[in-house]
Amino acid sequence: MPRATSRRTRDELTKLSGTHAAVAARRAGLSDYEQTRIAEFAAVGVNEPLRNKVRAVVENAHR
């Protein structure tokens, strides 16, 4: 895997983790998360079933 791809993936996962933690700690709302992160996933080609899994994890953590 090219280093640039690896770096971008790591950076995206770091952002995802931070946003997920903020939602879980209720510092950010689920709608904020969905509007930003999940929309970005769609923009870069993450398929819908995977986006739905992410959404489900976030919703479960938020309960």
What do these coordinates show?
The protein has 3 helices and no strands. The chain has helices spanning 3-24, 30-43, 48-62. Helix 2 (30-43) packs antiparallel against helix 3. The radius of gyration is 12 Å and the shape is globular. The protein has one domain (3-62). The protein starts with a helix and ends with a helix. The model has no long low-confidence stretch (mean pLDDT 79). With 63 residues, it is an all-alpha fold.
Provide key terms for this protein.
single chain, mainly alpha, 3 helices, globular, 63 residues
Secondary-structure map:
Elements (H helix, E strand, L loop, with lengths): L2 H22 L5 H14 L4 H15 L1
Helix pairs in contact: 2-3
Q: Could you tell me how far the N terminus lies from the C terminus, measured between alpha carbons in angstroms?
A: 37 Å
Number of strands: 0
Portion of residues in beta strands equals under 5%
Q: Determine the number of helices (DSSP H or I, runs of at least 4 residues).
A: 3
* Helix proportion range: over 70%
- Unreliable stretches (pLDDT < 50, length at least 5) are none
Kindly provide the radius of gyration, computed on alpha-carbon positions and rounded to a whole number of angstroms. Answer: 12 Å
Mean pLDDT: 79
The gross shape turns out to be globular
Tally of structural domains: 1
Structural class: mainly alpha
Run of helices and strands:
HHH
Main beta sheet: none
